[in-house]
From TrEMBL:
Belongs to the peptidase S10 family. This is Carboxypeptidase. It comes from Olea europaea subsp. europaea. Residues 1-24 form the signal peptide. It holds the Pfam family Peptidase_S10.
Length: 467
């Protein structure tokens, strides 16, 4: 008689045979722009989701450069919606980036990131939703997506990916993302919880989730922009107090018939019109970059305002727009697409962030997801660059207390190499713990500004050590 272990293995094999149609994966040992063999293990591939697998989601998988057999598995979702996983790889937490400084219009050179999160974790970067990066659909209808559909598609993707990579099924699993991707993080985590409770195979070893400068509830996160601007001395006490009284503290989606509130916000808007929202210390990049319309900067003021609400980080060069030009040149190069095993004819032109995706924003707040995950005992790391005005750190500091947690470690500085890297506070409830951290001096996508500090933060948190 076959034991339970044997039955489980047979079931996984049958599921693998059932679900691997239309999927592909390849080990990438060299990349155009890098001389020699890559010093990390990279795999790319497609996994089909949706009815008849009409949606083909593209991914990049990097094995940990530390101990891949023991290190956890992270599924990472980029900003957007519509920003490629390559964006997070090259400009944020991945093992390589591009030599922007010496870019001359030819094929960009690749340089290594010594502070990649792949130093301590296996990471899957996914091009989602469909229409992002190299992901595509076989039908026009397949290109329609939404918050709810994205979460379900990503869950299906991960389930199939694990079936194709059974050696990672028992790894500690964390769902992670930043900016708008942070909104999907608890939604995908909930899909995993429901799947595990329903007995779906494989059972995923979910441990918790990670959100960086993420969106949770626009009525909280976006509303925090005006108080943040005041706290950072970008607007005067007089302007702030007038707006606070006139708008009754409600700046996001304010009543357009409230003339006093409108006037107060117009004065504030003028003060902030030359500020780079994603890193207030960086130069203003007005009218120079893509402007994804999901991050609601216009709703903080008026519908016709022209203030950038850029979701992308600004770059190490002035305005960092050059960075995005470099990734566009690299990813659209025919030799690069051949090296990544991109299916020919599936996309017309690759873009860092696709503003033209068909996407429905049908989940406004994810607070209820957080509350359910708390009750079930999953861990959480919430971090924010403290110079980001697009998704300011004051947002989480407002919504975290609504979770009815107990402070376990009071607000204090956390250090890297003896220097203050930011401030942190830890909360507890039964088996659940939530760590909140600021990254001092960082903007949106904090690792692009403070890579060493962010890697130290991740390593400590994954190892269950205090920041």
């Amino acid at each position: 008689m076959m034991n339970s272990t044997g039955l489980s293995g047979l079931l996984l094999l049958l599921l693998l045979l059932l679900f691997n149609n239309g999927e592909s994966q390849a080990i990438i040992k060299t990349l155009p722009g890098y001389s020699g063999t890559l010093p990390f293990k990279l795999e790319t591939g497609y996994i089909g989701v949706g009815e008849n697998e009409e949606v083909q989601l593209f991914y990049y998988f990097f094995e940990s450069e530390g101990n891949p057999e023991m290190d956890p598995l992270l599924l990472w979702m980029s900003c957007g919606p519509g920003c490629s996983g390559l964006f997070s790889i090259a400009y944020d937490i991945g093992p390589f980036t591009f030599d922007v400084e010496n870019f001359d219009g030819s094929l960009p050179s690749i340089i290594l990131n010594p502070h990649s999160w792949t130093k301590v974790a296996n990471i899957i970067f996914i091009d989602e939703p469909v229409g992002t990066g190299f992901s595509y659909a076989n039908t026009l209808q397949g290109y329609n997506s939404s918050d709810i559909k994205s979460a379900k598609d990503i869950f299906t993707f991960l389930r199939k990916w694990l079936l194709n990579h059974p050696m990672f099924i028992k790894h500690r699993l964390y769902i992670a993302g930043e900016s708008y991707g942070g909104k999907l993080v608890p939604m995908v985590a909930m899909e995993i919880v429901r799947g595990n409770e329903a007995g779906l195979q494989p059972q995923m070893f979910l441990q918790g989730y990670i959100i960086g400068n993420g969106l949770t509830d626009p009525n909280i996160d976006f509303n925090a922009r005006i108080p943040y601007a005041h706290r950072m001395a970008l607007i005067s006490d007089e302007y702030f107090e007038f707006a606070k009284i006139s708008c009754a503290g409600k700046y996001h989606n304010h009543d357009p018939n409230n003339q006093q509130c409108t006037y107060a916000l117009q004065r504030i808007k003028k003060c902030l019109s030359r500020i780079n929202e994603v890193q207030i210390l960086d130069p203003s990049c007005a009218n120079m970059a893509p402007k994804p319309n999901d991050f609601g900067w216009d709703q903080t003021f008026l519908k016709d305002n022209s203030v950038d609400h850029l979701v992308l980080p600004s770059a190490k060069q002035e305005c960092q727009i050059q960075d995005l030009v470099v990734s566009d040149e690299w990813a659209n190069d025919q030799t690069v697409q051949e090296a990544l095993y991109i299916r020919k004819g599936t996309i017309s032109r690759w873009t860092t962030c696709n503003k033209g995706i068909s996407y429905e924003y049908n989940v406004e707040s994810t607070l209820e997801y957080h509350k359910i995950l708390i009750k079930k005992g999953y861990r959480a790391l919430i971090f924010n660059g403290d110079h980001d005005m697009a998704a300011p750190y004051m947002g989480p500091l407002e919504w975290i207390p609504t979770l009815n947690l107990t402070i376990d470690d009071d607000w204090r500085p956390w250090l890297v190499n003896g220097q203050v890297a930011g401030y942190t506070e830890k909360y507890m409830k039964n088996d659940f713990d939530l760590t909140f951290a600021t990254i001092k001096g960082a903007g949106h996508t904090a690792s692009s500004y403070k890579p060493k500090e962010c890697l130290a933060m991740l390593d400590r948190w994954l190892s269950r050590r205090p920041l």
